[in-house]
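re: ur question from earlier - yeah i can do the single chain one, its not a big deal. heres the input i used so u can compare w yours
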Amino acid sequence: MATDINDPIAWALDADGDREILATTGQRFTTGLESVKQNVETALKLIKGEWILDIERGVDLFTEGTGVLNTAFDKARVLKIYRDVIEQVPNVSEIITLEASYHNSSRTATVTFEVLTPFGAATGTV
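and the output i got, formated as tokens:
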């Protein structure tokens, strides 16, 4: 599929979230479906207040009474928080599935999503 001038474009990120630098060609970019998927994953990893250019963007983890980490795990409330974040990502037309789980032993959460974009369906887990 050819890249269109209106396709989203982003620096490709590696598994650690760092810019992917290829030894032979330098930086790699993503477009289309890959770019939208990466943007959703990045949005879900961004903590509200962390980005100086827009402190309202990101997942609310710490707000008293409403943040993900400040109350007992309430799946419906957590899914609403993540849904609100995903809906703000450009080129996400619809959220097909969204699942969240909390793991007591490791004190981590897993979010799995499938979104519809103009480029097709994208799935991911963070």
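Strands lie at 9-11, 21-22, 26-27, 29-31, 94-103, 108-117, 120-125. not sure if urs matches, ping me
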